[in-house]
Amino acid sequence: MKKLLIAILGIAAVLGLTLFGGCGQETGEPFGSEATVTVVLDNKEDAPSVFSVPVGKAGLSSAAAGIDVLDVLAEGGTFYYQARQGVYGAYLLEMGTVRTDESGEYPVTVYDPVLQEGNGNYIYVYTSVEKDQDTGNYASEVEYLGQTLVNSAVGVSYMSVEAGAVLYFTYY
Q1: Does residue 105 carry a pLDDT above 90?
Q2: Residue 147 sits in which domain range?
Q3: Does residue 130 form part of some domain?
Q4: Where on the phi/psi map is residue 102: left (φ > 0), alpha (ψ -120 to 50), or beta?
Q5: 139 in any annotated domain
Q6: Would strands 37-42 and 166-171 be described as parallel, antiparallel, or unpaired?
Q7: What's the superkingdom here (predicted)?
Q8: Are strands 147-151 and 141-144 parallel, antiparallel or unpaired?
């Protein structure tokens, strides 16, 4: 009887740990191989910088967040961002493009900022993903290629990602 009780407790412990371990990061449904997300950087002075991020080929799923899209884009070598980790996730400090300057003796990687936090400027994000859009009294909108985007009610670390979504970064 004692051995049976120990065996039952052992099985219960293993099952409990297995179930607890399964509560980790959600995997979500994988995107199709052709799925993309559009990222737009608009400083309101120059033509916007537009990037198409191949979220399907990068292996992202519906559980990915906006920051994951920025990471995939940064790995491509034509975009960069700087962020500070805060209580509410990543706080974007700077976003821009990357290019190689080959005019000198040696090629040099140049980081051209498009959006920079500071001097009264704050990086603001609009989204086409309806469940993340601000529905409050102070919600604001921007038009992009005939599509109305609404400011995000959540930070980039918690933004939902959908195939075909637009993440539009600009100044507030």
Answers
A1: yes
A2: 28-171
A3: yes
A4: alpha
A5: yes
A6: parallel
A7: Bacteria
A8: antiparallel
